[in-house]
Amino acid sequence: ISLDRLPIKRLESIEENGAEHFPSDVDYDDKRVSLIRRIDFAWALWKWKGMVENLQLAHQELSVIIDLIDTVQANDAVTVAGMTRPKPMPNEILSDLAVSTATKLQGYRNLGKYFKQSAKALEQKINREARFYGALIRLQRNWKVKRQRSNEGFTIDLSDSSLYDPTRPSTLSTIRVDHDSAGMLAINVPQDSWYSLRFGFVGTSETQSASDDKYVKETHSLLREVHKSIFAEQLFDMLNHEAFNEGVGFNISGIRENFMEMSIGQGASLFVSLHPSGKPNRPSYEIYLQQIFHEHAFGKAKDRNSGLLDHFCLSLTHRIFSNRVLVHLESVVCKVPYLHLISHPTWNSRTSSWTVFMTVPPSIIPQGKTQFRTKVVVKDDCISVEAECTPNVVGLLKSSSCNLFSMNKYECDVADLPVIILQQVASQIVCWLLEEARTVGTKASRDFLSLSLEIVEGERVSLVAQVNPEDTKGCISWWLVMENGEERRKSLGHLSLDVLYSVLMDLINLCG
Amino acid sequence: MDPQTQNTSLQRLQNVENRVVKVLELAGGVMEELASPSGPKKEFVNSHCREFMQSMKDIQVTLREEIKSACEYRPFEKCDYNARIANEICFQKLEYVLTQLDDLKQTADRYPSSG
């Protein structure tokens, strides 16, 4: 582009006569337009022309080649020896290299991304599985975990082949281990599918967790409940079988599914049932039933005629009876201040035992007896009493001495028990007083519950015990009886043993 | 296997898994570095590859150890379910005794001690 730099007015035209014509004054835009019109594309045209010429030359050469090939094909006169690929130009080599390099780099980039994504996915999977297997390992410490060969799954086996084999195999014995939505271990046991044993007398009338640790503990608790449920089912099954055996201690009065009712001794009726889950409160006899079954089931061979139900019912009957006995004993002992009641463990479910202790004030007799015992033993529903100074043993009714140390044993009824105990105790007191009197040289004698002292010939004074279980003030009261031809009685009321002793001493002084 | 060794063995295996993840990450890192337009930094690639090889070696060693020391899986030779039920029964007894003691305490608390 050539531009006139000089700001001179350009001559537009000149006439023959020399007259000059200048262009009229144009405004800026018009001036620009006219300048643009003057741009000279000469060189570019030259280059364009060159390219066109080159193409034409190339076209010419191509035509020649094509003609040659056509001639050769038509005439078969000339064979083409070979055609070499034209050597690539340097810029072509470079661009090929650049393309392949770029492709390679892209490949690396994709590979890198693939590895990193895989790493992330693997990490997530590992963490999920770590929770699952961590929980499974903890449960495996306590429960049998089995791997299934068919799939990748696990089960927990609650059955025990060494146990009493039931005719009613539990559907709960195998528990499948599932995954929850977060991949964590989960076991699903519907609430109603497991049982607990329930026991009672007729006529009378019971998770989404925060941490993994808590979750494992809850799962463990659930497995424990199911395990106990299987045991309960087996126990109930055993009871069902026993129900058809002869038994002394029970009579079946009703059987339904998962429910058994029977009448036992002492006028009681009891039931045993399996009921779906829940937490019943556990009376002690229910625990006992489980214990004897467990000992039996794992102890000896699977002996069907074990008499367990019979034994259990007899034990329960005994328990009811011994509770009555205890009530009677307590009613007496709590009213007499110098008596204490002690229970003895017998380690036998059909035997109970207590002792009524009486402590007497220390006497002037060195190594004198200071404690008297009345032992009460109940076996099934038989009561036996064993004590020193038994009042109603023949031969001891009237005597001038008492063996404070020899024990006698006799039986009694539950209805008579309070009176018998009181009489026994009163007899012991009388014997004790007798020995005290004899020690100081007084001539004394006893007759059942009275202690007599001879004042002078024909005159006797006696301390007489009176027992009354209903007496709320003290049960054992004392009378002073004077005999000199006629009998005069004076009531002394309820005396402590100290006072009684001093009364005796006073009487002795009186006699002496 | 007692609970403690079981725990550490599991931990070791979990460690191996974590290392595999790390190895993958290293490979990815190297690839990305190779793809860098300004060319890979030699030190970076070298250190990553070193770590890669070391980790692979550690993984191999650990797995070999674990395989050798893993004991045969014997499905519960000595089942303790029997003792477990006995334990549950004892537990019930304890619960019962505790309620009895609580009752005793409540009764005793009602009467002020004398002397």
From TrEMBL, chain A:
Coiled-coil region list: none
Cellular component GO terms held in the UniProt record: core mediator complex; mediator complex
Superkingdom of origin: Eukaryota
Subcellular location: Nucleus
UniProt KW Transcription keyword: yes
InterPro entries associated with the record: Mediator_Med17
Main localization (coarse): nucleus
GO biological process: regulation of transcription by RNA polymerase II
Keywords linked to the UniProt accession: Nucleus, Transcription, Transcription regulation
Presence of keyword Nucleus: yes
UniProt GO MF annotations: transcription coregulator activity
Family: Belongs to the Mediator complex subunit 17 family.
Protein name (database record): RNA polymerase II transcription mediator
Lineage: Eukaryota, Viridiplantae, Streptophyta, Embryophyta, Tracheophyta
TrEMBL record, chain B:
Pfam family, one: Med11
A molecular function GO annotation: transcription coregulator activity
Keywords, ordered alphabetically: Activator, Nucleus, Transcription, Transcription regulation
Record-level GO BP terms: regulation of transcription by RNA polymerase II
InterPro entries on file: Mediator_Med11
Its job: Component of the Mediator complex, a coactivator involved in the regulated transcription of nearly all RNA polymerase II-dependent genes. Mediator functions as a bridge to convey information from gene-specific regulatory proteins to the basal RNA polymerase II transcription machinery. Mediator is recruited to promoters by direct interactions with regulatory proteins and serves as a scaffold for the assembly of a functional pre-initiation complex with RNA polymerase II and the general transcription factors.
Name of the coding gene: MED11
Locations listed in the record: Nucleus
Protein name: Mediator of RNA polymerase II transcription subunit 11
Quaternary structure annotation from Swiss-Prot or TrEMBL: Component of the Mediator complex.
Keyword match Metal-binding: no
Species, as recorded: Capsella rubella
tRNA-binding among keywords: no
Similarity field: Belongs to the Mediator complex subunit 11 family.
